[in-house]
Amino acid sequence: MTIGSRIRMYRKQNGLTQRELGAKAFVSQVAINKIEHDFMKPGVDLLVRLSNIFGCTVDELLRDSGE
């Protein structure tokens, strides 16, 4: 599973749209879409914000549970 897929999974588990997640993370909906489709990689600052929003660790966003 890619980082984009994991972010999409966490976003959906939290009942957020891409627009809502972008607003909470201070990025655009377009940026969230690009990240979820692996056209763009999130930077460290954004990973920290996403982990806080999702209530997980940055490591959980970066690693597949099977790794």
Describe the structure in your own words.
With 67 residues, the chain is an all-alpha fold. The chain contains 5 helices and no strands. It has helices spanning 3-13, 18-25, 29-36, 44-54, 58-62. 18% of the residues are buried.
- Secondary structure: helix percent: 55-70%
- At the fourth level of CATH, the homologous superfamily is lambda repressor-like DNA-binding domains
CATH class: Mainly Alpha
Strand segment count: 0
Number of domains: 1
Show unreliable segments: none
Mean pLDDT: 94
> Which structural category fits the helices and strands?
mainly alpha
Major beta sheet, specifics?
none
Shape-level CATH architecture? Orthogonal Bundle
3D shape:
globular
- Rg estimate, integer Å: 11 Å
CATH fold label: 434 Repressor (Amino-terminal Domain)
Tell me the distance between the termini.
Answer: 10 Å
Beta-strand residue fraction: under 5%
What string, H for helix and E for strand, traces the elements in order?
HHHHH
Q: Specify the number of helices.
A: 5
Output the keywords:
67 residues, mainly alpha, 434 Repressor (Amino-terminal Domain)
Précis, in short:
This protein has 67 residues and is an all-alpha fold. It is built from 5 helices and no strands.
What is the secondary structure topology, with strand pairs?
Layout: H1 3-13, H2 18-25, H3 29-36, H4 44-54, H5 58-62
Helix pairs in contact: 2-3
